[in-house]
């Protein structure tokens, strides 16, 4: 198996090279040349394995240039070293016969990004060694809030690497901001930009693909790589938990192997739901992929009409990690649905960057309708989903997970489909205590995020994650904020390049 760019199929590289480079120089994303299959026997066997063993079984299929020992070392360092609060890394909670919450927020930064970003640094340093690369790797990240912190935690003090994170000044929650600006580690940098997440992502992509910048870095013994979900090393670990959840259902006798499930994912950059799609392609019996958006509902419109149009109002919502109008990973799906037509992908993404819009062919549109159900929640609907879920089940969810639950309810009401559904829970409610308390009708004034966390603890009975309560005693280290045109100079400054 090799990896190819969605915009230039002639480019063929190994998985290690794809992980080191992050994004292709033609602006395309790396995808595997073929999809490995997963048998029912393998799924059943996985039911008896630990999470790291399940991860190793999946990685073996995609990282064919890694040795078994290399894979084992990576999965154990990430998932068996005690950095996740729960024994099994992920957790499944059943609300009703058809609603099962897949909790993915038990890592060191309390969001599902940890599932991939705890392992990416290990995959990356292993890949760097394999490719014989001597340069220091600089990880450049644009974040809508959760990726930044998860990447900082994953890469802090990693050998031969440093990490720089850009976040939208007014686009992240207070807790998310605190998490980032107090980050520890000798190889980390954090900078706010005056703009939204798309500005940050576009800026990072531009810096990445600029040949002149590449030369300057190279002269200084440095190369860029990406920890955003455009990196294949982010995608592969996300495929694992869908397979793991299904295997767990089989092991627990909730379903028989081969039975279909639905999957519902609160979506922003389209990485998490794309991983579920890859699991389905491998043979995991997924019937519908339910794509849940907030008021930034560009994906809802696209999946329903076949027209992607980012020329619309941008909303800052209570689910900030989904405040995105350019969902990068969609490109991988469209490459697949076009039958691997790189020319077609160049054409529609050229149109997206010129006019902010493209329309897919009727064939692709029909396929999208077959695969996906798409819906969105307004802010009011998101708040209602938080309070309804608490009232009905005594279960407290964060605003992103609430968007998924709200859209799932619409799906169930519209289709009558009661197939067991895995609803991805992507963050701890303690990351967004203000929005959660308000939704639960708590109108008190709180001095800070920590008082809010205490109040939420009294109501929900959920333990406050230690990683968040510890922030209170930390001093901010990174307070710089720049215009979006100044991102490159900020990078050079942080790297100490004149
Ligand atoms: C990143 C994130 C999402 C969106 O995931 P994508 O892979 O970008 O679609 C949803 N919820 C939370 C809490 C996140 O951090």
Describe the protein.
- This protein is α/β, with parallel strands linked by helices.
- The chain has a domain at 91-109 and 233-431: Rossmann fold, CATH 3.40.50.1100.
- The chain is 46% helix and 16% strand.
- The chain has helices at 15-21, 40-46, 51-62, 68-79, 113-117, 120-131, 146-155, 174-181, 197-209, 211-219, 232-251, 271-282, 298-305, 330-337, 342-355, 362-371, 379-393, 399-415, 433-439, 449-460, 466-469, 487-495; strands at 3-5, 8-13, 30-32, 91-94, 99-103, 136-142, 161-168, 188-194, 222-226, 261-266, 286-293, 307-309, 357-359, 372-376, 421-425, 481-483.
- Helix 1 crosses helix 6, helix 3 packs across helix 11 (232-251) and helix 19 packs across helix 20 (449-460).
- It is globular.
- The model has no long low-confidence stretch (mean pLDDT 95).
- The structure holds pyridoxal-5'-phosphate.
- Pyridoxal-5'-phosphate is lined by residues 111, 113, 146, 229, 266-272, 321-322, 400, 426-427.
């Amino acid at each position: 198996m090799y990896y190819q760019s969605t915009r230039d199929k002639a480019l063929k590289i190994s998985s290690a090279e794809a992980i080191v480079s992050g994004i292709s120089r033609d602006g395309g994303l790396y995808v595997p040349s073929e999809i490995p299959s997963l048998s029912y026997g393998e799924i059943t066997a996985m039911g008896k394995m630990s999470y790291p063993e399940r991860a190793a079984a999946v990685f073996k299929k995609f990282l064919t240039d890694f040795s078994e020992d290399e894979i084992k070392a990576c999965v154990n360092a990430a998932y068996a070293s005690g950095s996740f609060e729960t024994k099994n890394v992920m957790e499944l909670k059943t609300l009703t016969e058809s609603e099962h919450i897949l909790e993915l927020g038990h890592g060191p930064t309390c969001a599902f990004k940890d599932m991939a970003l705890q392992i990416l640094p290990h995959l990356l340093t292993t890949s760097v060694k394999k490719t014989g690369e001597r340069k220091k790797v600089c990880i450049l990240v644009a974040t809508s809030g959760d990726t930044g912190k998860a990447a900082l935690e994953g890469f802090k003090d990693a050998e031969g690497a440093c990490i720089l994170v850009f976040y939208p000044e007014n686009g992240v929650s207070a807790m998310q901001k605190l998490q980032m600006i107090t980050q520890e580690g000798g190889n980390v940098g954090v900078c706010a930009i005056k703009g939204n997440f798309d500005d940050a992502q576009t800026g990072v992509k531009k810096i990445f693909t600029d040949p002149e910048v590449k030369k300057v870095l190279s002269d200084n013994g440095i190369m860029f790589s990406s920890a955003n979900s455009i990196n294949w090393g982010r995608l592969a670990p996300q495929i694992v938990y869908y397979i793991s959840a299904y295997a767990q259902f089989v092991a627990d006798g909730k379903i028989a192997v081969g039975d279909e499930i639905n999957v519902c994912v609160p979506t922003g950059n389209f990485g998490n739901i794309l991983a579920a799609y890859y699991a389905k392609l491998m043979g995991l019996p997924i019937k519908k992929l339910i794509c849940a958006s907030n008021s930034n509902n560009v994906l809802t419109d696209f999946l329903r009409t076949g027209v992607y149009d980012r020329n619309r109002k941008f909303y800052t919502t209570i689910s900030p990690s989904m405040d995105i109008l350019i969902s990068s990973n969609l490109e991988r799906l469209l490459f697949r649905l076009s039958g691997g037509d790189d020319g077609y992908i160049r054409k529609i993404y050229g149109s997206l960057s010129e006019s902010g819009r493209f329309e897919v062919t009727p064939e692709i549109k029909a396929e999208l309708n077959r695969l996906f159900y798409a819906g969105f929640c307004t802010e009011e609907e998101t708040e209602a989903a938080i309070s309804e879920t608490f009232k009905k089940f005594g279960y407290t969810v964060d605003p992103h997970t609430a968007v998924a639950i709200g859209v799932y309810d619409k799906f169930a009401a519209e289709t009558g489909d009661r197939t067991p559904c895995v609803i991805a829970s992507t963050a701890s409610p303690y990351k967004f205590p203000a929005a959660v308390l308000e939704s639960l009708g708590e109108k008190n004034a709180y001095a800070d995020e920590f008082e809010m966390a205490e109040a939420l603890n009294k109501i929900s009975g959920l333990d406050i994650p230690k990683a968040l309560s510890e922030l209170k005693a930390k001093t901010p280290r990174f307070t710089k904020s720049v215009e979006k045109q100044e991102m490159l100079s900020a990078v050079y400054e942080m790297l100490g390049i004149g």
